[in-house]
Amino acid sequence: MPTKLRYFGICALALAAVTLSGCAPKQTEVIVKPLTEYTPKDEVALIEKLRKNKDPDKELHEVYRDLTVIDIHNHDAANPVAIENWRKVGIDRIVLFGSISEPSAKYTDQLAWEEYQKSPGNVYPSFAGFPIYEEEGLDIVRNNLEKGYLNIGEVAAASTFSESVSRLPWKAEHPNDGNFPKIYDLAAQYQVPILLHIDPPNGKPVAKLEESLDAHPDAILIFGHANAHNSPENIEPLLSKHPNLYIDFFAGFTAYSPSSINKLEDYVPLMEKYPDRFMLSTDSGFDLSRDQAAKGIYEMIDLLSPETALKVAYQNYEGLIERQPPTQTQIETIKKLSAKAGKFKTYELNKRMANEVIFELEGDVEK
Asked: CA 172 to CA 166: how far, in whole Å?
């Protein structure tokens, strides 16, 4: 038989064998494809059911037990039982960090990451330990975002009223100061939100915030505890002009702080008008108890329409997380670890998923 015919005959037999056995050619490389779509669950019927069956003798967090709630502003990274404590009062997931805008924050940022590694289903790791005016700060931000942190902040972008924040060594004078413009560019590049402490919530700090929002339309800026010492009337113009601004609503402050001049009900019309732009937080119960901080969240949820309650309780923030693409560092790490573990496959992942795959693969490789 001529050589060429013999070659084609062997190929045909090999193809027939693969076809008959139902086997496809074995994948020999690791592929990572970005997944950045987010489709929220339709749980309006769930909210309606929970409200219909509401037991007046139960705490609201028990009534809404089946509703996911995210606290987007939590300083308890140094507390080893933080997740357990907050879950007792109905908080399912927390955006976790510790100190802010001072050297000690580098340490608590690492603690937040370690808690995330232990409980990725309950923690979104954030970081706040970087100087605003030094080049080192940009390197820290870039490296942490590449590593897999899902949030920036809380960052002291302006403070003259807060006794504690106004004294921080890495505090900025205003939200467009120092390296903030470059940090916003990085936030936009990685599609990661940045949580800003701004006080007072008016005057020059807010004017500079607006400059930043206009100059960086692709960056997602979250106005930290924007309702504290602030009215719905002051917040509405910001939301109407800046689609990249989100509001961290510290419900416990409005509900329980003696210094609050508003009630939760005052903010309902604004939340219903901008249902995609509000998120809830406890601020770790700053100047309140943990119970009050959590109760405020559930009291706010209970005042909203089912559609808005779902978005504010968790979907708005969850969407910001789920749309983040994996970083190049994550992709290369997955390829290396997956190949080492003998797993040659195609992954479709966002940034959060990539972190969890890395944690799993690291465990496999260590075995």
From this structure: 9
Cα–Cα distance for residue pair 312/300, rounded to 1 Å: 9
Residue 155, strand partner residues:
196
Q: Is the distance from CB of 140 to CB of 152 less than 8 angstroms?
A: no
User: So where are the chain's domains?
Assistant: 44-322
- Taking residues 123-128, report their average pLDDT: 98
3-state SS, residue 194: strand
Q: Which DSSP string do the residues of 211-237 spell out, in sequence order? A: HHHHH-TTS-EEETTTTTT--HHHHHH
pLDDT at 132 over 90: yes
What confidence tens digit (pLDDT) does each residue in 154-176 have? 999 999 999 899 999 999 999 99
Joined tokens for residue 39:
């489709």
C-alpha 213 chain-centroid distance: 19
Looking from the CA of 18 toward its CB, the CA atoms found within 13 Å total 8
Which tokens in the block code for residue 253? 């402050």
Task: Provide the pLDDT for residue 25.
Answer: 74
Which 3-state string (H, E, C) describes 124-170?
EEEECCCCCCCHHHHHHHHHHHHHCCCEEEEEEEECCCCCCHHHCCC
**Average pLDDT for the chain:** 93
DSSP 8-state symbol, 72: E
Report the distance separating Cα 156 and Cα 354, nearest Å: 29
pLDDT in tens, 306-322: 999 999 999 999 999 99
Please state which CATH class domain 44-322 belongs to: alpha beta
Give the closest residue to 179 by CA, choosing from 127, 149, 142, 144. 142
Backbone φ and ψ of 260, nearest 5°: -75, 135
**Helix residue ranges per DSSP H, 264-350:** 264-273, 290-303, 306-310, 316-322, 328-340
Q: Could you tell me if residue 124 is left (phi over 0), alpha (psi between -120 and 50 degrees) or otherwise beta?
A: beta
pLDDT digits (tens, 9 = 90+) for 68-105: 999 999 999 999 999 999 999 999 999 999 999 999 99
